[in-house]
Amino acid sequence: MVKSELALRLAARYRHLVHKDAQIAVDLIVFALVDALGHHRRIELRDFGSFTLRQRKARKARNPKTGEAVYVPSKPMVYFRPGVVLKHRVNEGGASAAGVNRTERITP
Length: 108
Fold this sequence. Notes:
Strand content: 25-35%
Helix content: 25-40%
Structural class: alpha+beta
Low-confidence stretches: none
Largest sheet: 3 strands, antiparallel
Shape: elongated
Number of strands: 5
């Protein structure tokens, strides 16, 4: 799903929202997420998951075109850890997660 699809679904689900307002809301949320990660802060969206930054180690790689060895410096990478409700919905094939008790742990 892309941002424009999300805005369309929001506008369709909440009739009082005009599509333009839904698009602005989606853009503001994405901007806030990017800004927080840009400042090395952790983001947690309950029932969905959390985003954190992890430092990827420097390494040697190969240029696939020439085969030449290339040095790749250390850099931060975004890491996503899904929440319990999201994992449950994905594992159940899209079934409703309404029956998931947020306080009880679901074991794989």
